[in-house]
Specification:
Porin; twelve-stranded antiparallel beta barrel; 3 domains; 10% helix
Length: 709
């Protein structure tokens, strides 16, 4: 299960030295580029920490779709996909451009000091929208905000002047014509940053109330030209005027008149993972902690004639089952109990631990003082968490009791199965479900938006603990466009391993999404293993094996994976194509704290290329996760094709955030700039790190606020 840590606190801009400022909920609006700012021009204001914004803007025949994430209170990043008609010489061909932005705000606003930010626009793309800027924004009174900035690149094309940075080095006075990646794009235009002519821009915002923001700006962008330098539309004035309306929280509608000739429209939807729609959730109230009487707390044993161990196991099994916890094994002694269980309901293992402890205080004999909990997932015990029962009794209603419980927790690797009495699972070994599915494909050059809808029948059979047979069959019902049935040819000698994805299941019949037998193991206290065989994903079958070293209290994890993959037939039945490859990676995982998780996977990819993938995810306490990645291999940029190298954004949304009721289900999606062959990795379900770290210290610490819930 994918992890997620929640974003930091929702914060208004600081009142440095006590100056009055415009409230964040009235001030943060998004530009046609999908970033916080005026109309076309940026400002220095930041969205609330963790805010996610999706913007669609249209004017002059151009459509821009932008995903923006406020990574930290000061740093934000954006991915943009833009359609520019008549940009290329072929009038029948729309030009689809992908670009990435970064922006960093240096300071909070003070009584006299404006907030100041620096930004890179389209720093990783073809360079069509490339520009850099330094911008300052100041609040005046409680309803006005003024912005002024200096721009380069596109933002230095109207009334530009000699670059003031030329005093440092005369190379700043000349800007290269294109990015290093040329028409393929995808490489940073470092040589062009802050070079060439500069120009000023600015504007003013007025918020008469919390729903409306009126804007006027002076634009320094005069580069609305096609690939030959001809105007895409007439630019009659650098003055732009517009308004943003918020009919509902999280929704912004914008209307503007730009460059003296163009009407513009924007729609922005925002969500902040810190702001749960159901507050703390709609979880049913847990059982209260049962406090033992002083007279029986010191008992050294319990009467097994009155309450046998088998009867006690049955009672525990029934009580835990009511909480969505499956009892797997019990070891009982006069003064201690060890409980191994599987949490099937709660996203946070810390919450499940708290619920299990409450039940143990209700059900266990008074003499038992030491309680050891061993959560398990996929047949793998994650850790051993030991509590003193008297601490649980004392801290439930104590101020600061949550932090105190974490401080008194003893966490170590799970013990061996020896000594545990197995408990017959309450849930059946065979489970199945029939659910709708939605398939989404974005940014393909021939069809930028493909959507399909259908039904998926899934089934799973637990042969024994840690050994699971599972599979899924899909039947598409509706799709927005006909599939591209042209089989791709290799480019630059690189085998076609992903670019034929649209051909899989194109005939519309039922398809076998996956069918696997997976065996999970725990060879030693800090070592975990997995072997998966079968139809591993929609495009490949084979064998995947993995080992992971991950001590329970360490922020570091190291894994190794080796796969033998065979390409499946396009009909997604049981046949295979004539392509097979051995892939493998050495993976390093690190928890940086504050919800940031990094991962490096170095090795061989599906096309036989060697290299490494780098990823960073920000995870929130309530299950959301937003991250980005890029992969560099020994395939030259020109052989990789458009985009130059693999990169993308991934998003995980926990279902309990939407429903308010506890569930471990979640929705994962990935926004890729392009689906190319270089840097492609096998899509195996159930990789160990995402399973194992649920019960380890840093993950428990991040979600410990739910311990008593």
């Amino acid at each position: 299960m994918a992890r997620s840590t929640r974003l930091g606190a929702a914060s208004a801009l600081a009142l440095m030295l006590g100056s009055p400022t415009l409230a964040q909920d009235r001030a943060v609006t998004y530009t046609l580029f999908g970033t916080p700012g005026l109309l076309e021009m940026p400002s220095a204001i930041s969205a609330e920490d963790g805010e996610i914004a999706g913007t669609v803007g249209h004017f002059g025949g151009q459509t821009r779709t932008t995903f923006t994430f406020q990574v930290t209170p000061r740093l934000s990043g954006s991915f943009r996909y833009s359609g520019i008609p008549e940009y290329t010489p072929d009038p029948d061909e729309n030009f689809w451009d992908r670009s990435f932005d970064l922006r960093f705000r240096f300071n909070d606003e003070g009584r006299y000091l404006p907030m100041v930010a620096v930004g890179l626009q389209d720093f990783l793309g073809t360079g069509v929208y490339s520009g850099e800027y330094v911008v300052a924004t100041k609040t005046l009174g409680d309803a006005f905000r003024v912005t002024a900035g200096l721009g380069w690149g596109r933002l230095g094309t109207h009334n530009g002047f000699t670059n003031p940075l030329g005093v440092l080095d005369d190379r700043f006075e000349t800007r290269p014509d294109t990015f290093e990646g040329g028409d393929k794009g995808g490489t940073p235009g470092i040589d062009a940053f802050f070079r060439g002519d500069a120009a000023v821009f600015g504007g003013i915002e007025w918020a008469p109330n919390e729903r409306w923001v009126l804007k006027a700006e002076y634009s320094s962008d005069d580069a609305y030209v096609d690939d030959n330098g001809d105007e895409l539309f007439e630019v009659a004035s650098p003055l732009n005027f517009g308004a943003t309306w918020r009919p509902l929280p999280g929704i912004q509608l914008g209307l503007a008149y730009l460059y003296g000739t163009q009407l513009a429209f924007t729609v922005t939807a925002t969500v902040n993972p810190n702001d749960r729609p159901f507050g703390a959730g709609l979880d049913p109230a847990p059982q209260p902690v049962a406090v033992r009487a002083e007279a029986v707390r010191a008992s050294q044993s319990w009467d097994r004639a009155e309450l046998s161990e088998s009867a006690l196991r049955d009672r525990l099994r029934a009580a835990l089952r009511a909480e969505g916890v499956e009892l797997l094994g019990v070891q009982l002694a006069d003064r201690s109990a060890r409980i191994r269980y599987a949490n099937t309901r709660y996203r946070a293992e810390a919450q499940a631990m708290g619920r299990v402890l409450r039940i143990l205080t209700q059900e266990l004999p008074p003499s038992i003082e030491t309680l050891t909990l061993e959560p398990e997932q996929q047949g793998v015990p994650l850790a051993a968490a030991t509590f003193a029962r008297s601490d649980v009794e004392a801290l439930e209603n104590e101020v600061g009791g949550t932090a105190a419980a974490l401080g008194r927790l003893r966490l170590e690797g799970a013990g061996p199965a020896a000594g545990l009495v197995p408990v017959a699972p309450a849930s059946p070994d065979f489970t199945w479900s029939l659910r709708p599915y939605v398939g989404l494909s974005l940014f393909d050059a021939s069809d930028p938006f493909r959507l399909s809808f259908g039904a998926q029948l899934s089934a799973s059979y637990r042969l024994r603990p840690g050994l699971v047979l599972s599979g899924a069959v899909r039947q598409r019902i509706v799709r927005t466009s006909e599939p591209d049935t042209t089989e791709r040819e290799p480019v630059g000698g690189v085998p076609v391993v992903r670019r034929n994805a649209s051909l899989y299941g194109a005939d519309g019949g039922p398809v076998l999404s996956n069918l696997t037998l997976a065996w999970y193991g725990h060879p030693s206290r800090d070592l975990y293993s997995r072997v998966t065989v079968g139809y591993l994903e929609t495009m490949y079958g084979g064998v995947s094996s993995e080992f992971l070293w991950k001590p329970v209290e360490s922020r570091l994890g190291v894994g190794v994976e080796v796969n033998y993959a065979v390409q499946r037939d396009f009909d997604q039945d049981f046949g295979f194509r004539d392509y097979d490859v051995v892939t493998g990676h050495l993976s390093t995982y690190y928890d940086f704290g504050n919800g940031f998780h990094g991962q490096i996977d170095a090795g061989r990819f599906l096309a036989g290329d060697w290299g490494a993938s780098f990823s960073l995810d920000r995870e929130f306490e309530n299950g959301w996760s937003v991250g980005g990645y890029f992969t560099l291999t020994d395939i030259p940029f020109e052989d990789f094709g458009e985009g130059s190298f693999d990169k993308g954004i991934r998003l995980t949304i926990p279902i309990d955030f939407v429903l308010g009721t506890p569930t471990r289900r979640e929705v994962d999606t990935e926004i890729r700039s392009l689906n190319r062959d270089g840097g492609a990795r096998l899509g195996v379900e159930g990789r160990l790190y995402e399973i194992v770290r649920d019960g380890h210290y840093t993950e428990l610490e991040d979600s410990w606020g739910r311990f008593w819930r």
